[in-house]
What we know:
alpha+beta
Amino acid sequence: MKxxxxxxxxAALPYANGPVHIGHLAGCYLPADIYARYLRGIGEDVAFICxxxxxxxxxxxxxxxEGVTPQQLVDKYHGMIKNAFADFGIxxxxxxxxxxxxxxxxxxxxxxxxxxxxxxxxxxxKQYYDTKFKQFxxxxxxxxxxxxxxxxxxxxxxxxxxxxxxxxxxxINPKSRLSGEPPELRETEHWYLPLQNYEExxxxxxxxxxxxxxxxxxxxxxxxxxxxxxERSITRDMNWGVPVPLPGAEGKxxxxxxxxxIGYITATKQWAAAQNKDWKPYWQSDDTRxxxxxxxxxxxxxxxxxxxxxxxxGEFILPDNVPANEFLNIExxxxxxxxxxxxxxxxxxxxxxxxxxxxxxxxxxxxxxxKDNDFLWKxxxxxxxxxxxxxxxxxxxxxxxxxxxxxxxxxxxxxxTGDAEQxxxxxxxxxxxxxxxxxxxxxxxxxxxxxxxxxRLGNKYLTDGEPWKTIKTHxxxxxxxxxxxxxxxxxxxxxxxxxxxxxxxxxxxxxxxxPGNWNTAGNADLIEENTLIGEPVILFExxxxxxxxxxxxxxxxxxxxxxxxxxxxxxIETKDILPFKDNISFDDFSKLDLRIGTxxxxxxxxxxxKLLKLLIDLGSEIRTVVSGIALSFSAEEVVGKQVCLVxxxxxxxxxxxxxxxxxxMVEDADKKxxxxxxxxxxxxxxxxx
Length: 689
């Protein structure tokens, strides 16, 4: 690796419209974390940058589905994602967010610089308009048949089935996601980034200057460049996002794929300010190496569009590498968040407490580095039981037990040495460079395999040395074998840190190791003689069949439940439908005051299993309402929800609490309560009629 003074490492900004799943980890965040931890270990200056992508249509669509505002939605998922990453041990130097005022300022300044330099073109075009909702439709508000593969639910900007980049007008039989009806084309004015003006430069920069990039990345770039680039709209007709900072551009925001990568720069600024550093060298100095870790669906944006933006700006360095991974499937099927076919990180951390390193190991050993790979729960179990527990855990436990039994848990002094020790020393010398080189080449699977070979070497050396036998006949020999076994464990503790950080830390504590980093590994003198080491401990417990069966059942059950919801329920028997009540007059109906409110707070009512106490914002006032929904919803679930409230119902005391209204609910076919909500988020206090 060329000598650089500093390293800026970015991991793709996850959309704050849902939690993180293990496909995200395997494709982007885990390899980025391994790389950042390794660089820190060899003493490099590292800025490891990430944050939530909180703009764009994906956010507004999800907010509409959940009946909350976009800000409420991103607040919810930003916190969930940030906490899950932290609990899992992803070592970001900062995890920021693109809804922050600092980001709006940075993105606006970037846009203005390109605008003032005359980079953009401006033109009137015809875009789809939903006549029912009276608004222009951003790309992802439109779906239809992909002209390339025939997938019926392709988005207006990309087909998720075949990966083809699209314009909304490319879709066959397009429909609006708001109304479900065919939209009509109307004229609107936008700014465009003329990618075709940079085509020749990109060919030279990528195909000639970065021929060492991964084959999947080069292949996708070559395909784009061969087809020929064209201008791309970089503004949208929306009210959520970074406003276009120009007069007369009201109601328009920056396209999410323009502002999202600028989020890396914003986050770096925020991190540098907190560290009392200058952010500019991390983005503007030639002695900085910029690396983007992404999944394959983001290759075009990080290898074509963002580099063009940086080049056009003129003050920023370009990425040196973009080591994109392929996709990770689950039990033979593609991950599908809409079908809930995923293993969610926050749920894994609950189901398998303390087993972060197990998942790190399994995802890295099976990483989709060159092709799509599969995550199988039985494979997860086998890798834990047969590799982590049987190879690594067994070695650690054996060494600690023998040292405790024979030397009262003190590192014995070395006696005579022989060919076995010389071979071990020679191997230890090679492992830091061997593993480090593979990490620098982004071959994380091979690097992890070499780490496991180090553990296998330790097991073989200990077994061949037989200290449990020689302690009686050649005690000096037994002491030598255990001393060198402890030294090997100390090397494993250092070299495993990028891959298995929790295990590394526990092992360092067990061995009572002195502070050190990657550069101190590679020798057999890390632990001094007579050092007190820890008592035997099981670092990797066996995972039983029942735990795996529960996870497989959980996956299948969630898919079945989702499918049931999606299917039209045409088989409900007439006897299950409640009879209609007696007619009322229009005057009676007009007396009802139905208002839309937002739940601000919620808590269980003491000694009442079915009741929640809610504080509801109605705009002009805040009401307390006691609602019998606690069997269907937790207090945490309903905070931020929009609800329809009978606002003029006579107040009454329930469990000593004055309830000022009633929330409207409906039962589904499974007798579960469902909120009666407006089709999209509306201002609190709005009247339903």
